[in-house]
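[Automated response] Your request has been received and processed.

Submitted sequence:
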Amino acid sequence: MLSYERLSKKPILFKSFTGLAVQEFDDIYDKQIVKRYEKHEIQRLSKRKEDRERKAGAGRHFKLDIKNRFLMLLVYYRLYITYTLTGFLFDLDQSNICRDIQKIVGLIRKCVPIPQKTYNITKRLQTPEEVEQYFPGLLAFIDSTEQQIPRPVDKDRRKMYYSGKKKRHTVKNQIMVNNRGYILHKANHKKGRRHDHDIYKTNHPVTPTQVVNVVDLGYLGIETDFPEHLSALPCKRKETKICPKKKKITTKFIPKRE
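Generated structure:
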């Protein structure tokens, strides 16, 4: 059975399973979750009708304590596993996993930025208030991630899916998030051999004109290909003479061309 007591003894696995170091997990739990949990439970239980037959808090209790439920939710979102596998790891029934996550996810989102889609369909933002709601700070972060796939049997497919950067066969997914970690756009997966900028040219999200698209040097050239968009790319400049080999990374803002 997976638990905080067992997993915290292996810091490397803890970081890999949850995305947080043990100390970071403890700080968030002690300083935020413990203080907010009682109020969260009162609000959750008070949503029921007043003519209820039993008092608030009656019924079956959670099998796991709040700390292990917090750990379970992070493992579920970090590893992107099914309810069935999560139940096997934490010795719970599949229905209990769904219930436990549903009851606590609202509290955890106030303490940890859990990635999620803000909406499931395309939406046209018409007012400045809507733009600010989906793009806080008027910023959008775009990048591509690679996932390893089994080595294709066909020789041509092996060549198309081979990534020189990862030195293995992969597929690429381009994702756009806001500064709260919410996924606003995801393109269909592409062959691992394709360049990030090449994917962006045919599968880029259409953002409001006042939103700045923050990208890395893999998207070098979007300032000329898409002059109507605001872009921010990192640029490198040489350090002082004391350490000439090192380079400092700064951000280069590409204004929209009239």
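Summary generated for your ticket: Residues 128-254 form one domain. The first helix runs from residue 4 to 7.
If you did not submit this request, please reply to this message.
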